[in-house]
Amino acid sequence: MKHTEVLPGSVGEGLQQRGVTRREFLKFCTAMTAMLALPPAMASVMAEAIAKARRQSVIWLSFQECTGCTESITRSHSPTLETLIFDLISLDYHHTLQAASGEAAEHARALAMQDNAGKYLLVVDGSIPLGDPGYSTIAGISNYDMLVETAKGAAAIVAVGTCATYGGLPKADPNPTGAVAVSDIIKDKPIINVPGCPPIPVVMTGVLAHFLTFGSIPELDDLGRPKSFYGETIHDRCYRRPFYDQGKFAQTFDDEAARMGWCLFKLGCKGPVTYNACATTKWNDGTSFPIQSGHGCIGCSEPNFWDAGPLYKALSMPVSATSAMLGTAAAVGAAAGVAITWHNRSTKAAARTAHEKVTAQELLREEK
Amino acid sequence: MSATLEKGLNSFKEVIDAPIASFFSSCVHCGLCAEACLFYTETGDAKYTPIHKLEPLRRVWQQEYTLLGKLGKALGLSLPVTDAELEEWEPLVYDSCTLCGRCSMVCPVGNDLTYMIRKMREGMAASGHAQEDLIAATTRAVTIGSPMGIKWPAVLAQIKHVQAETGIEVPVEKEGADYLVLMSSMEIINFPEYLSALSRIFKQAGVSWTLAQDAFEATNSGIQIGASDLAREIVSRIVVAAERLKVKCVISPECGHAFTALRWEGPNLMGRPFGFEVKHILEVLDELHKAGKLKTQGKDKRALTYHDPCQIARRGGVVEQPRRLLNEVASDFREMPDAGVMNWCCGGGGGVSANTRAEPLRLQAFKHKKGQIEATGAHTLVTACANCRIVMEEGLEHYHMNTEVIGLTELLAQYLVEDNAT
Question: Nearest residue of B to residue A341 by CA position?
């Protein structure tokens, strides 16, 4: 098989320089194709497209975040497939990973924006505080201003992590900083939401591979998430699902049922309402995922998960109502019922009082 | 004094009770009642959907008895029920509903639509929107004693005729008799066979019975028109006579709504339980048959089919009895499709037969019964309601069908073993 022509400055050249064999590269493309649920024939198409492509310029902005998202991606850095993410892209600006600092760092961002105007990919993690610009600034620039400025020339935006996608923990009640998601501010650019606290690394690489191959963004659901990763709930793909179907539940974290690996629904597992790929791709190079480790899903990739009820209460239990509230509601309901019944009864009693005995003569109307 | 809209609306408010409130609030608008209604299936006109016939009553319920409705009414957002609307609804309520109860059977949430139409007619009557022929019939029932204007001398003439024919004395005003026998005007005028058949059967069975001079009429126009005050007056005549003669049981004749009026509505209208039982003639005959007191000989060779009168079968629960009796005297008894509790109405119950305006619609609706009769291949139709009988005879005549209609009591009497030796 003839090798794909290696263009200077292309991904292919970069890979050759790093000693990545073509075989390894094809394996990566095949894995990505499978991940994105594309036909097998697309693997070679992807290899061709990616090898020829100029390395995609990426600017990564971090706002109100914990760096967990970056940690997540770097954790899978070596020696797995995810390593290649750094060979596919030209990461022109990233707080945590860049060597430059201060003026030089901001200069790198400005240069990347200028050189790749309209083509660079903007990755954002962290939420943006609208309460006071001073809550979070970088090089004296408020998060809001930096986002708006950088988004202007971006081809697309990838919001990484639940903070950037839905506001995340900073937005949790009472949301002291007035945190919002990227999509709350930027309305005129395609935004791919990759939620999770943190998100799964392969989802990132998958989205990038798709973008490099097709020059477009993958198919998204109504919350802006790639359907190939967020199309099904954890629950639907959970290996403990058969126990749920049989009604076998762990009641505490250390009972016999828990040791037998029964369903964690009653211990607050949010798997049934969480759309993510944890149960299939798993974490740490396919090692495990929370439910496999014995803890229920906390639903970290869903909007407002932090305020969606106690983590250890079953989904079927009321989220916010306390017994006092329920009692009050019942009392108010009963009082309203009594009032309405009394009113209805008086209406009917009045009608009965007003009843004039119908006689045969009174079946006719006067005007008739 | 005359009927007014105010009286009608007040009556609507008065008749809305817990069942009606729950029926309206639980309606899921599925439209299944339409498919159950004779007038819808035969015309395909959506206005004959049973629940639609109740629209004015529904709005009164909503405006007077629901929270949002009250609010809407207070803010002037709801459409009040008007005379014009009730006039428009009059044919729907009186011409295209025979109170047959089929819709109540199919309602998936269990709404008794028939009960609601019956109650709605209260408000229609009080507001002067009852059908005029029904008004005339009701007036005659109240003032003369019978919707067809029959008085005791006419009954007396028939008694004499029956006595001459059968040689059996018809007991009148016999205190302490077991049974008080009632008749419908239709039987007195059109079907004298009933009284004759009954005399012979009762003679043979040794039943002690009587007629009452002031309570021979079983029908109750007050029920049909929807005027409980009048229905009470009419039914009280029977109650008074039954208690005066100290009978154990009152026999409702071969008439549908008379059974409903006396058996089910009667005690509610009177506001007290009766001191006697009420049975339909078929129930009495079935009991006599079970006790071995009703013996028959021979079987009818003709192919026979049986029409279940709605008020007797579906609303009255008398379904098995006619079949047991028929099997005694019929060698070729054929059931109609949907026989029993889901049988189709003749098209003339609930006062529709008395309503001349409804005649074309009634004949159109009869097509369903026509098809059912034809499906059996029988040319003799047995029934147990004089009203069904006259309506079906008219329908059969209209469609030039060669089918004879007879009453079940009369058929049984034809095969009665008359043992004069004992």
Answer: B65
Q: Which of A343, A358, A365 is closest, CB to CB, to B229?
A: A358
Q: Please answer yes or no on whether B1 and A368 come within 8 Å at the CB atom.
A: no
Interface predicted TM-score (ipTM): 0.79
Q: Is A353 on the interface with B (CB under 8 A)?
A: no
B230 in A contact zone (CB under 8 Å): yes
CATH number for the region A56-230 comes to 3.40.50.700
Q: Which residue of A has its CA nearest to B137?
A: A360
β partners of residue A142:
A137
Tokens 């008398």 identify what position?
Answer: B318
What is residue B354's three-state secondary structure? helix
Q: What is the pLDDT along chain A (368 residues), one digit of tens a residue?
A: 344 455 666 777 777 777 777 787 788 788 777 777 777 777 787 777 777 777 788 899 999 999 998 888 876 544 344 455 556 777 888 888 788 888 889 999 999 999 999 999 999 999 999 999 889 999 899 999 999 999 999 999 999 999 999 999 999 999 999 999 999 999 999 999 999 999 988 887 778 778 877 878 899 999 999 998 999 999 999 999 999 999 999 999 999 999 999 999 999 999 999 999 999 988 887 889 999 999 999 999 999 999 888 889 898 876 666 788 889 999 999 999 999 999 999 999 999 999 888 888 888 887 54
Closest listed residue to residue A163, CA positions, set A187, A189, A146, A181: A181
Contact state of A343 with B125 under an 8 Å Cβ cutoff: no
Of the partner residues A344, A354, A358, the one whose CB lies closest to the CB of residue B65: A344
The burial class, CB within 10 Å (0-12 / 13-18 / 19+), for A70 is: buried
CB proximity A362 to B under 8 Å: yes
- Structural domains of chain B, with CATH: 5-130 (1.10.1060), 141-289 (3.40.50), 295-414 (3.40.50)
Pick from B16, B70, B142: which is nearest to A360 by CB?
Answer: B142
Query: Class of A232-337 per CATH?
Result: few secondary structures
Residue of chain B minimizing CA distance to A367:
B2
Nearest-Cα distance to chain B for A325, in Å, is: 23
Relative orientation angle of helices B55-65 and A323-354, to the nearest 10 degrees = 120
According to DSSP, residue B416 is labeled B
Is there a contact between B135 and A363 if contact means CB atoms under 8 Å apart?
yes
Query: Where exactly does CATH 3.40.50.700 map onto chain A?
Result: 56-230
Looking at chain A, the number of H-run helices and the number of E-run strands are 16, 9
Helices B228-244, B132-143: crossing angle, 10 deg rounding: 30
List every span in chain A annotated with CATH 4.10.480.10.
232-337
